[in-house]
Design goal:
The chain is α/β, with parallel strands linked by helices. The protein contains 9 helices and 15 strands. The radius of gyration is 19 Å and the shape is elongated.
Length: 258
């Protein structure tokens, strides 16, 4: 087996391990080794890798699936900054003159807002950070969705936000994906954020998901939508999209190295 084939086989096995943990919540090293017909050391290496990527929690003699936690906006801003900026720039290229678009409160969406080149567009957002950036672009029509200020995520959420979103219809939604998994679809750490994203998806003609590789195979507390809700995915070259091929996403990849 050549190096590329071996690497592919390893990644497929690790993806299957995540699926097993998703269904069964936990598994032992011997059980996984028997299931995949590999050595105990091979499984231990797999689990170390998945743990380093914050996808699982190692336990005595095995592992369990990690639920994605809520992380502060400031912390997320500093994570994988180059990749987020590359995804944001590519997302901005999909906006056409005259589009009505919605941008959620994800940190990747902030990179997109900074990269927007169009001179005429109607932009709706629940992100105060995005609104501040676009407020300087006087030729754009900016609509800031009201609601309750969420200081952890720097966005407006709640029943008022959801109700206001429902008044509109947009051509394109640019949606940050906090966690995406084949079985559980799109999930978020808080129910309020999930409710806002659900309504955004409902009113959009096209849903463009923005997510770097670290968001794949993760599950958070609150369900947003099935993975099939995404039409276009913009991600980086390290993302494992193989489990999602059945959804026929249009996948656009950016380089992790600029």
């Amino acid at each position: 087996m050549d190096n590329d084939s071996a690497r592919l086989f390893t990644e497929e096995r690790r993806s299957h391990i995540l699926q097993i943990l998703e269904r069964e919540h936990r598994a032992s090293v011997p059980a996984l080794a028997s299931r995949f017909d590999v050595s105990l050391d091979t499984i231990r290496r797999d689990l170390r890798d998945l743990c380093a990527r914050n996808l699982i929690t190692k336990t005595h003699g095995g592992a369990m699936r990690r639920t994605a936690p809520a992380v502060t906006y400031e912390s997320r801003l500093g994570q994988d900054l180059d990749v987020k900026e590359a995804i944001g720039r590519r997302a901005a290229e999909l906006v056409e003159e005259g589009d009505a678009i919605m941008i959620d409160g994800a940190t990747t969406a902030l990179s997109m807002a900074r990269a927007l080149k169009v001179t005429r567009a109607r932009v709706l957002t629940n992100s105060m950070e995005v609104a501040q950036v676009l407020s300087r672009r006087t030729t754009l029509e900016l609509i800031v969705l009201g609601g309750r200020w969420d200081p952890l995520h720097h966005q407006l959420v709640g029943a008022a936000t959801v109700e206001q979103i429902g008044r509109y219809r947009v051509d394109k939604l640019f949606l940050g994906m906090g966690a995406v998994d084949h079985a559980n679809g799109l999930t978020e750490p808080t129910e309020e954020d999930a409710a806002v994203k659900r309504e955004m998806i409902r009113v959009a003609q096209q849903v463009i998901g923005l997510a770097d590789h670290s968001k794949f195979g993760r599950v958070a507390f609150a369900h947003v939508a099935p993975a099939s809700a995404i039409d276009v995915l913009i991600t980086d070259e390290l993302a494992d999209c193989n489990p999602f091929l059945e959804f026929n996403w249009e996948i656009i990849r950016v380089s992790n190295f600029g």
